[in-house]
């Protein structure tokens, strides 16, 4: 392919990527180092109240935002360096807590670490479940009668098709105070059950919801992979004396290895941006995620200000987190790529 | 070491019958080849012996044990596959060691046994490679080493040479023959290639449409085919088959009249004869005379084809034999090289 054709093909997507990915990223990156504030001025105000002989007058100095001629508040943007990151990460408080031996303190009291703790845990715990459940469904479907496969594939895909927030809401309604399942469980155990009264039960439901929602994706990918397993190799393993489990371990899983890495990467990126669960389960009071933190900063406060700078910083930190969490997988893929595996 | 006995084994999938009422006795240390066109049930039969398919009916005995209900791993057989069936993520060494590993054989013996097996198929300098770094012939040798490392009672080979090129096929064929001779392991070998069957087998099983056609040594199969299917399947070119009838001690097909020798039954019959049993002449007193349909130089011989009453019959002449197309040529046929088959059942008729 000559150079011109190459650019003609690649050009459009390159431009799209620059406009829709690179540019926002850079603007968020820059934005995280600046703070935009309204400019205040000190105004001396003398206010008088009518008195008997003379007026009683007091003078006070008030801080007032400067109003521009067109009625808007005058703002200026200043470079603050890493100040915003400092506000988020609170290094002094962390240091103090650590020197006092209270290792868990920051994860309870500082929003960012609270969110980080949940996000990382959520990502790492759901991953093995998604892989194992996905592979199990794929194997089950692959081993079942041909005529049943279509309906089973359709049913297993449903959770994946459902809009995430709706899915989360429906699980919430099943388990809420007078929800169907809660009532059932209460009848069975004779105990009062409130799944939304404490953090850990909410987290449990969130993990369950995510695995339920994403496992069908892993299933479809793995099921496709299973269609190309070399039947001769499987038969050879059977005759060689490998049990069902050994065949899975030595033949099927190595064959699916590239797909497992693919699903792992997609899931890590996806789960680290966990957000719908927090909204769907209304868990803000107990459990928050990094993505929700960004959302929270972007929500206007009572006086209508959005903390754009902190939101930028928090999304930059989220991105850094995703990169760190992907490094082991990427390194492994790169090594295998170089050895030509 | 073990004998194998198949008693009326049958394989049906719904209404389709893959193998029907197949009986066979294989002696200990024997090399048996299943030969037949694709879809004739030979691979299915082998897979039933291996335990990869369950027979719908009948018994399979290895040694004196009925193995129908045993898992493949408990039958003590080793199998070699057409597409090798190697483990792509394991090295050659680990591939060969795999059966020992999963069977929990004493790990201290592994190294010795793997090296011995690799040595037998001349793989010793490739042990650290991965299957993807090997040629087809080397891969098949890995599969062979993996089969022999366990010293099983029975070898099953499912068209092991079909994916190799012609030259490699000859040398690997010799290797398999030599291995079987050294190890003296009962072997069943499936192929659709009659040369492989002829060169390797102690006895050949010719199959068609799930049924046994003939069981015999390569020489028996070649010299006295049991029916028209075997006759037309074995030999290159295959045996010529002419439909005709017997009239007053002569075989008549179109204008051709051939003395029928001992054959008494009047009526429809099929005559078979091999291309190399025919003497090709330019004399007009030959048994069959017709214009030449085609002449092909094979190198060591010339193949002359005539069109007799709508059927093409071929004969081998010496390589110096020269003839023009459409020239009249005669085939001279001795009565003892004629094979007679029932026109309806296809069975051999011995005079």
UniProtKB/TrEMBL annotation, chain A:
<keyword id="KW-0472">Membrane</keyword>
<dbReference type="GO" id="GO:0005886">
    <property type="term" value="C:plasma membrane"/>
</dbReference>
<protein>
    <submittedName>
        <fullName>ABC transporter permease</fullName>
    </submittedName>
</protein>
<dbReference type="InterPro" id="IPR000515">
    <property type="entry name" value="MetI-like"/>
</dbReference>
<feature type="transmembrane region" description="Helical">
    <location>
        <begin position="307"/>
        <end position="330"/>
    </location>
</feature>
<feature type="domain" description="ABC transmembrane type-1">
    <location>
        <begin position="116"/>
        <end position="329"/>
    </location>
</feature>
<keyword id="KW-0812">Transmembrane</keyword>
<feature type="transmembrane region" description="Helical">
    <location>
        <begin position="204"/>
        <end position="226"/>
    </location>
</feature>
<feature type="transmembrane region" description="Helical">
    <location>
        <begin position="152"/>
        <end position="175"/>
    </location>
</feature>
<keyword id="KW-0813">Transport</keyword>
<feature type="transmembrane region" description="Helical">
    <location>
        <begin position="6"/>
        <end position="30"/>
    </location>
</feature>
<keyword id="KW-1003">Cell membrane</keyword>
<dbReference type="InterPro" id="IPR051393">
    <property type="entry name" value="ABC_transporter_permease"/>
</dbReference>
<dbReference type="Pfam" id="PF00528">
    <property type="entry name" value="BPD_transp_1"/>
</dbReference>
<keyword id="KW-1133">Transmembrane helix</keyword>
<feature type="transmembrane region" description="Helical">
    <location>
        <begin position="118"/>
        <end position="140"/>
    </location>
</feature>
<feature type="transmembrane region" description="Helical">
    <location>
        <begin position="248"/>
        <end position="266"/>
    </location>
</feature>
<comment type="similarity">
    <text>Belongs to the binding-protein-dependent transport system permease family.</text>
</comment>
<dbReference type="GO" id="GO:0055085">
    <property type="term" value="P:transmembrane transport"/>
</dbReference>
<dbReference type="InterPro" id="IPR035906">
    <property type="entry name" value="MetI-like_sf"/>
</dbReference>
TrEMBL record, chain B:
<dbReference type="InterPro" id="IPR003439">
    <property type="entry name" value="ABC_transporter-like_ATP-bd"/>
</dbReference>
<keyword id="KW-1278">Translocase</keyword>
<dbReference type="InterPro" id="IPR017871">
    <property type="entry name" value="ABC_transporter-like_CS"/>
</dbReference>
<feature type="domain" description="ABC transporter">
    <location>
        <begin position="4"/>
        <end position="234"/>
    </location>
</feature>
<dbReference type="Pfam" id="PF00005">
    <property type="entry name" value="ABC_tran"/>
</dbReference>
<keyword id="KW-0547">Nucleotide-binding</keyword>
<dbReference type="GO" id="GO:0055052">
    <property type="term" value="C:ATP-binding cassette (ABC) transporter complex, substrate-binding subunit-containing"/>
</dbReference>
<dbReference type="InterPro" id="IPR015855">
    <property type="entry name" value="ABC_transpr_MalK-like"/>
</dbReference>
<keyword id="KW-1003">Cell membrane</keyword>
<dbReference type="InterPro" id="IPR008995">
    <property type="entry name" value="Mo/tungstate-bd_C_term_dom"/>
</dbReference>
<dbReference type="GO" id="GO:0008643">
    <property type="term" value="P:carbohydrate transport"/>
</dbReference>
<keyword id="KW-0067">ATP-binding</keyword>
<dbReference type="InterPro" id="IPR013611">
    <property type="entry name" value="Transp-assoc_OB_typ2"/>
</dbReference>
<dbReference type="InterPro" id="IPR003593">
    <property type="entry name" value="AAA+_ATPase"/>
</dbReference>
<keyword id="KW-0472">Membrane</keyword>
<dbReference type="InterPro" id="IPR012340">
    <property type="entry name" value="NA-bd_OB-fold"/>
</dbReference>
<dbReference type="GO" id="GO:0016887">
    <property type="term" value="F:ATP hydrolysis activity"/>
</dbReference>
<dbReference type="Pfam" id="PF08402">
    <property type="entry name" value="TOBE_2"/>
</dbReference>
<dbReference type="GO" id="GO:0005524">
    <property type="term" value="F:ATP binding"/>
</dbReference>
<dbReference type="InterPro" id="IPR047641">
    <property type="entry name" value="ABC_transpr_MalK/UgpC-like"/>
</dbReference>
<dbReference type="InterPro" id="IPR027417">
    <property type="entry name" value="P-loop_NTPase"/>
</dbReference>
<dbReference type="GO" id="GO:0140359">
    <property type="term" value="F:ABC-type transporter activity"/>
</dbReference>
